[in-house]
Amino acid sequence: MERPGRLLLQSELRVRNAAYDVSLSRSLLIWKRRTSSPVYHPFRPSVCHSVPVSEIISVREEEEENGSRQRDDGSWKKIREREGKDCRQAFTVLYVERCRQHRWRCAEVTFTCSDEAVCQHWVSSIREQLATSRPKHLLVYINPYGGKRQGKRIYEQKVAPLFTQAGISTSVIVTEYANHARDHLKMEAELKKFDGVVCVGGDGMFSEIIHGLIWRTQIDCGVDPNSPEEALSPCSLRIGIIPAGSTDCICFASVGTNDPVTSALHIIVGDSQPLDVCSVHHNNMFLRYSVSLLGYGFYGDVLSDSERKRWMGPARYDFSGLKMFLTHHYYEGTVSYLPAKEIQTCINFQICLFSFVFHPESSGEWRTIRGKFLAINAASMSCACPRSPKGLSPAAHLADGTTDLILVRKCSRFNFLRHLLRHTSKDDQFDLTFIEVHRVRRFRFMPRHCQSDSDLELDLHENSKRQIFSQICKDHPACGCAPAYSSWNCDGEILTHTGIDVRVHGQLIKLFARGIEELPA
Ligand SMILES: CCCCCCCCCCCCC/C=C/[C@@H](O)[C@H](COP(=O)(O)O)NC(=O)CCCCC
Ligand SMILES: Nc1ncnc2c1ncn2[C@@H]1O[C@H](COP(=O)(O)OP(=O)(O)O)[C@@H](O)[C@H]1O
Ligand SMILES: [Ca+2]
What we know:
By secondary structure, the chain is of the alpha+beta class.
């Protein structure tokens, strides 16, 4: 147990009619049952409890009236136990309780005491300790269209009541069209009024939020957001993600679960987790930012195919995943990359070879690989999600200024299936001869057909004729012709160009999260 440090308060209070020694320090609230008899009692519940002050959600006074207690939020609560006449004042502490698989829940304990002044002193002392680094005013964007279209219900039923209990005020915007949230953040939102932004939706909705926030921050700081060489200014507002999408990878990989209540509690306690952001350019023209997966080949094709099946909800990814696995397309091109350190091939994901030191720039040399690839994936975080609990790159860090470039070379369907199935298990998905992993700060990709066209990139629009032929060939596999181009899946959005230049910006944004906690063995 953590040491409590200097005590701010210590009293004898009652919990469910039993006497407890209760103490408060800057770091811990401890309540320890007074033992009247030293005899060990196997059926008595645990006698000593402690809660880090940083994990107290709120404290409220309870007032007794006509045999019931009224909460200070106006609702009523039956007294559960008979109390003596001199034991009428009470306050309730709500705190974080850890459940299975990184889930958090709100637990509560009610302390009673005979003296009103003592009771109020406790309430005000706890509230004073909670005042630091916690958000008080939040700007909330809800995508009512993502995932199973439950965003509004999830927010209203599971999250808003917790924010109210924690004394957080909110301005809520339910989006009416795609890019509504992005454009509101870019141009209209009065950001000075808020301590954070909350995104209710999936990875695509989160992408809208960061595009709005990063762009706005650069304009406010006089930085050109379009230039590939500019050092971008970090965003000061933290972002909370209430998962209500189809994959929810960014939430899952930064919190450990895709549970709305857990996310709401991380926001309330004011957690902070920096996050790397990749900028993606094409011929010096800004395309998009990415924080999770940039995937060409398999994951690009799955996304393109699945968008047409949005009516299926999240199951569209399973359908398109299977279809694209059977299609087994490979793509030719050149990947160049700037390694994060000397040799960056991480063979065993369980042994992470890299230090956690954050280097703003690298002095390494560019390297080049040409080949035929089934997939080119850049994972800036583990990309863990319910479909892949360890993620595409289990050892990737959230905020080390690097991305893990995973090259899956052309191989048999059987071998590719072995690799994909390892996404869903604990086996090392990289320990296969056709997979290479490089930890990089920058990388470029050029599809083969662009190189032979004097490095002139054909964008997807110009490439439409080829796409039509590819579609015919996809539909007639017997002709043996594979499409020349895939497209990039950028955090769940399709990029309009295939030749890209990617740069990692270390710790550009912050989340209301704390990374994945080690669970006790
Ligand atoms: C034939 C068996 C295939 C089994 C493969 C299972 C591997 C799943 C790995 C998923 C990695 C996901 C990385 C995250 C991507 C998201 O950004 C993106 C958009 O999410 P959202 O906005 O919430 O819809 N999701 C995808 O691209 C889905 C990929 C699913 C591939 C099967
Ligand atoms: N009101 C809206 N109507 C239609 N599309 C929207 C709306 N609000 C946001 N979007 C778009 O919906 C897309 C999917 O959102 P997301 O929340 O990521 O759900 P999913 O995980 O199911 O893809 C995003 O591209 C986002 O820009
Ligand atoms: Ca990273």
